[in-house]
Design a protein that fits this description.
- Two copies of one chain form a homodimer.
- Chain A has helices at about 10-20, 40-50, 60-75, 80-90, 115-125, 135-145, 160-175, 180, and strands at about 1-5, 25-35, 55-60, 100-105, 125-130, 145-155, 185-195.
- Chain A is an alpha/beta fold.
- In chain A, the strands form two sheets. A five-stranded parallel β-sheet of chain A has the order 3-2-1-4-5, with helices on both faces. Chain A has a two-stranded antiparallel sheet with strand order 6-7.
- In chain A, strand 2, helix 2 (about 40-50) and strand 3 (about 55-60) form a beta-alpha-beta unit.
- The longest helix of chain A is centred in the middle third of the chain and has 15 residues, at about 80-90.
- The first copy, chain A, is globular, with a radius of gyration of 16 Å.
- Chain A starts with a strand and ends with a strand.
- At the A-B interface, helix 1, helix 5, strand 5 and helix 6 of A face helix 1, helix 5, strand 5 and helix 6 of B.
């Protein structure tokens, strides 16, 4: 069965991809892009290094604009990120019977509650899978065991999360420190290939 | 890393075992038994047919008695089953760094909330994993794809869940229809081997 994993090049979505492949799904990795910046490139590189099929999932800029509007109104990213992620799931559901992401047990955002998941699965006749059964300790250990990882400050060249284009759009709209205040600089760990054994 | 999967021979705990084995954990399946009935035998057979290492996890009958006391007081099984499952996790944590079970997204019982999971992991310095990222539709399809399954009315010879010894103890204490009322007869699907491909 074809399964789409919404893919950032990070360890969570990489582990989800590995689990589904080992469970015999035909896995395609898809990285969301709203057309503002080529922020999908880092994820494409991670996917290639792991040997997974990868494609951009082109989404309309209006989804990004709606998310940014919510974020600017709230002053924090959670609801806007959830809005964007839910719209993206709807798009993915048009082409795949199984949609997965790297959301894990401890994640607070993006996050779908049980009712939202059931409603999504039923209305679109799809299955939705994530890493809600796995905590951060397990993900950390697993990713170190499976992958070659690179820890670095996040930027446009190494990060394929929604965050990059959200920051860019906020900068365009505000031209001040708003984006840096809402999304402070942080370290990330990116999958750059399989660990040699 | 050694991982213990609390194992009933059903599709949920079987899929959990398969995922962990494919992620390179050293998996041991453990089936809980309180010493009243040899209800572990069906799970041992499933484990053997799948080629997994399997052992009984012998637990003190007082845990069962406590669970049954709660169930009889409540008139329904949820809190008593949760009590038993939490005690069993504590026992498993004495011997394994990673403890998993087949609890999935839709399960209502046994179930641990996020705070209980974190407290369990931190106090025992273990990792706890389950199938909370997988819904019943995905589990059904996956299990049909991976396993040879047998659907049948549940009984002592084909079911290794807590339920069997709980029913037995309730029957001993009450000698009436209480056990059948709290645990109505139901169909179950048991893993009897790998699906031939």
């Amino acid at each position: 069965m074809n399964a789409c994993v919404l893919y950032s090049g990070g360890k969570d979505s990489s582990i989800m991809a590995v689990i589904l492949q080992k469970l015999e799904y035909k896995v395609e990795l898809r990285t969301v892009n709203f057309g503002l910046l080529p922020s999908w490139k880092a994820a494409a590189q991670s996917a290639e290094n792991l040997g997974f099929k990868h494609r951009i999932l082109e989404a309309d800029e209006t989804i990004l604009q709606e998310g940014v509007e919510i974020i600017l109104k709230d002053g924090y990213p959670n609801n806007g990120l959830n809005h964007i992620h839910q719209q993206i799931l709807q798009i993915a559901a048009e082409n795949y019977p199984v949609i997965a992401d790297g959301i894990r047990r401890d994640d607070r955002v993006p996050k779908l509650d049980l009712n939202k998941i059931r409603s999504f699965e039923d209305s679109k006749d799809v299955e939705y899978l994530n890493l809600a059964g796995f905590g951060y300790k397990s993900i950390d250990k697993l990713s170190k065991n499976l992958f070659k990882l690179k820890n670095e400050l996040t930027n446009i060249n190494n990060n394929s999360d929604y965050e990059i284009e959200i920051r860019y759009l906020i900068d365009q709209l505000r031209g001040d420190e708003t984006a840096s205040r809402i999304f402070p600089e942080h370290m990330q760990s990116r999958v750059i290939g399989w660990r040699e054994k």
